[in-house]
C-alpha cells in the first residue's frame, strides 16, 4: 500500500434489485469507485449480521448491503428482516463505540443505476474521510 | 386481586411440603428442583418422582449449577404433568426457548421465588456454605441486596417472576423462617394446590418490592458504568475480550443459545493457510486462536435481544471476562429497539422473526 489510502468496501448486493442496479450503472457507463467489491446474494436477508462483522474485523473499510426497496422484495418480506437485523447490529456497534458509520444499508432497485453509482460515490467519499479501518493494521484479532 | 396461600413453616420447608403434596396426591408425576447431590454439599437439578427423594431437596437455594431453562427444554413437552421450581431468570430463559420451539409449558406447573439473587458457583464451592447462606438470607429478609451474589443479579430488575403459576414470596419477607406465602397467579395453580392449605385474597407486598427495585436500579447503573470500556472502540473491546481463550463455554451454558449447529462451533469460518498468510502480510502479526472477538460480536448479533441476564456465562468463564455484564448492557439496547422484554410473554415472537412495515424508516437511504 502506498501513501494514498485506497478504501476497500465489501458490498452485499441482492440479485434481484441492487445487483441488477449495479449492472445498469455499468451498461449506462456511469462511473463509480473501484473500491466497491460486490458479492451477489439471492436476497439481502441472506446476509447474516455475522457476515458484516466478519468483513469489518478482517479489514474491510466499509460494508454495504444493497436490497430492494421495502415492499418490493422478490421474496415479499426479506428486506424487512434485513432492516431489523441491521438495526440490531448498528445498536451493538453504537453501544461498543465501534465505528458504525462503516456500515451502510441502501435500497437500490433494478432501475436505479444512477442511484447505485451515487451511493457508491458517497460511501467511498465518506470512508475516504474516515481513513482506514483500524482492524486492518495492528489489531490482534 | 390474586389468591394467596400461607403456611406456618419456613419457605424452604413449605415449598418442599407443597411439592410432596403435589406428588402424593398425584397431581403431578414429577418435580424438578434443586437438591443436594450428596453430603458434601454439592448441588444439582433433579427430576424427582418419589416423594422420599424430596428429603434432599433445597428448592430455594440461591445457587445456579446450570440454567434450568436448558434442562426444561430436554424434558418438555411432557406427557404427564410436572412441577418445576426455578429462578425467575431461568423461567424467562425457558420462555425464550419456547419461542424458539425448544420446549413447552403444557403440563408444567411453574413455581418461582421473588429472587434475592444467586451466589456465584465459585464462591459457593470455595466458601463455608452455612455462613454464606446465613448472611445471604439476613440481607434478603431485610430487603437488601446481598453482597455475595452475582454482579448481574445485583443489577437485575426482573426479580419478580413474570410468568410463574405460583410465586413464592422471599425478598423482604421478615418471617421467612416461620412463614411462607405463595401467590397463585393462575387457575391452574389454584386447582393444583386445592387441599394444601387455606386460600385467601392477597398479593406480594408492592412497597417492599418497589423499594428493592430502586436499589437494584441503582446497582444496575453502577454496573453499566463500571463496564464502560477504558478505551473506545476496538481497543476497548480487546481490553475486555482479549483474554478470551475461545472455549465457547459462555454459549454452551447460555439459556438462549440452543443451536446444535452453532455457526461458531462449525468449520464455516475456518480459513486456509494462504488466507492466514495474506493476513500476515497485511498486519505483520496474528492472534491465535483467531476469531475470539468475532465470536462475541457474532453472538451479540444473534441473541443479545433475548439475553435474560442470568450471569451463568460470567460464572463459567475461565478467563474472568464479565461476559454477562456486557451482554446485559448490549441486550438492553437491542431489545429496546423493539420494546421487547425477554421472557415476558410466551406468545410474543422474537424480534428477528417479525417486522413492522412502518419502522426504521430512517435506515436504508
Which regions of chain B are unreliable across 5 or more consecutive residues at pLDDT < 50? none
Helix content of chain B: 25-40%
Strand order of the largest sheet of chain B: 3-2-4-5-6-7-1-8
Q: What is the residue-mean pLDDT of chain B, rounded to a whole number?
A: 90
* Protein chain pair with the most extensive contact, residues per chain: A-B, 42 and 44 residues
Q: What is the total tally of β strands of chain B?
A: 8
Q: How far is the N terminus from the C terminus of chain B?
A: 51 Å
Structural class of chain B, please? alpha/beta
Query: What is the molecular shape of chain B?
Result: globular
Number of helices of chain B: 14
Topology of chain A as a string of helices (H) and strands (E): EHEHEHEH
The whole-number mean of residue pLDDT values of chain A reads 92
Strand order of the largest sheet of chain A: 2-1-3-4
Helix content of chain A: 25-40%
Number of separate structural domains of chain A? 1
| Number of structural units classed as domains of chain B | 2
Number of DSSP-assigned strands of chain A? 4
User: Please, what is the oligomeric state?
Assistant: heterodimer
Amino acid at each position: 500500500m502506498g501513501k494514498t489510502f485506497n478504501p476497500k468496501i465489501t458490498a452485499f448486493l441482492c440479485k434481484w434489485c441492487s445487483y441488477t442496479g449495479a449492472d445498469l450503472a455499468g451498461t449506462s457507463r456511469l462511473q463509480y469507485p473501484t473500491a466497491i467489491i460486490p458479492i451477489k446474494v439471492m436476497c439481502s436477508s441472506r446476509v447474516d449480521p455475522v457476515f458484516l462483522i466478519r468483513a469489518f474485523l478482517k479489514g474491510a473499510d466499509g460494508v454495504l448491503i444493497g436490497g430492494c426497496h421495502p415492499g418490493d422484495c422478490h421474496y415479499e418480506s426479506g428486506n424487512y428482516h434485513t432492516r431489523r437485523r441491521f438495526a440490531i447490529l448498528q445498536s451493538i456497534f453504537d453501544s461498543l463505540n465501534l465505528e458504525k458509520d462503516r456500515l451502510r444499508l441502501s435500497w437500490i432497485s433494478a432501475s436505479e443505476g444512477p442511484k447505485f453509482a451515487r451511493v457508491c460515490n458517497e460511501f467511498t467519499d465518506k470512508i475516504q474521510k474516515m481513513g482506514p479501518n483500524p482492524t486492518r493494521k495492528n489489531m490482534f484479532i | 386481586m390474586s389468591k394467596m396461600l400461607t403456611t406456618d413453616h419456613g419457605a424452604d420447608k413449605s415449598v418442599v411440603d407443597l411439592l410432596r403434596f403435589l406428588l402424593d396426591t398425584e397431581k403431578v408425576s414429577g418435580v424438578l428442583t434443586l437438591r443436594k447431590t450428596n453430603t458434601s454439599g454439592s448441588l444439582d437439578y433433579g427430576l424427582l418422582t418419589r416423594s422420599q427423594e424430596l428429603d434432599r431437596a433445597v428448592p430455594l437455594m440461591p445457587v445456579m449449577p446450570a440454567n434450568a431453562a436448558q434442562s426444561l427444554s430436554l424434558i418438555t413437552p411432557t406427557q404427564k404433568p410436572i412441577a418445576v421450581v426455578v429462578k425467575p431468570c431461568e423461567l424467562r430463559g425457558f420462555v425464550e426457548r419456547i419461542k424458539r420451539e425448544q420446549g413447552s409449558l403444557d403440563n408444567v406447573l411453574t413455581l418461582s421465588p421473588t429472587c434475592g439473587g444467586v451466589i456465584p458457583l465459585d464462591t459457593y464451592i470455595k466458601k463455608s456454605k452455612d455462613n454464606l447462606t446465613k448472611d445471604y438470607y439476613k440481607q434478603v429478609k431485610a430487603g437488601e441486596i446481598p453482597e455475595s451474589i452475582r454482579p448481574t443479579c445485583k443489577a437485575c430488575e426482573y426479580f419478580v417472576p413474570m410468568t410463574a403459576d405460583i410465586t413464592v414470596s422471599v425478598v423482604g419477607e421478615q418471617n421467612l423462617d416461620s412463614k411462607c406465602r405463595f401467590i397463585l397467579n393462575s387457575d391452574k395453580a389454584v386447582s393444583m394446590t386445592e387441599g394444601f392449605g387455606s386460600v385467601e385474597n392477597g398479593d406480594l407486598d408492592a412497597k417492599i418490592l418497589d423499594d428493592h427495585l430502586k436499589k437494584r436500579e441503582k446497582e444496575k447503573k453502577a454496573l453499566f458504568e463500571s463496564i464502560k470500556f477504558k478505551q473506545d472502540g476496538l481497543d476497548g473491546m480487546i481490553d475486555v475480550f482479549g483474554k478470551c481463550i475461545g472455549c465457547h463455554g459462555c454459549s454452551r451454558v447460555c439459556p438462549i443459545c440452543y443451536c446444535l449447529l452453532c455457526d461458531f462451533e462449525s468449520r464455516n469460518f475456518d480459513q486456509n493457510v494462504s488466507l492466514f498468510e495474506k493476513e500476515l502480510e497485511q498486519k505483520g502479526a496474528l492472534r491465535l486462536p483467531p476469531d475470539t472477538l468475532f465470536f462475541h460480536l457474532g453472538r451479540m448479533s444473534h441473541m443479545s435481544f433475548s439475553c435474560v441476564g442470568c450471569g451463568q456465562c460470567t460464572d463459567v468463564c475461565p478467563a474472568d471476562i464479565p461476559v454477562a455484564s456486557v451482554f446485559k448492557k448490549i441486550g438492553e439496547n437491542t431489545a429496546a429497539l423493539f420494546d421487547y422484554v425477554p421472557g415476558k410473554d410466551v406468545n410474543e415472537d422474537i424480534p428477528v422473526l417479525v417486522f413492522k412495515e412502518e419502522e426504521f424508516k430512517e435506515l436504508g437511504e
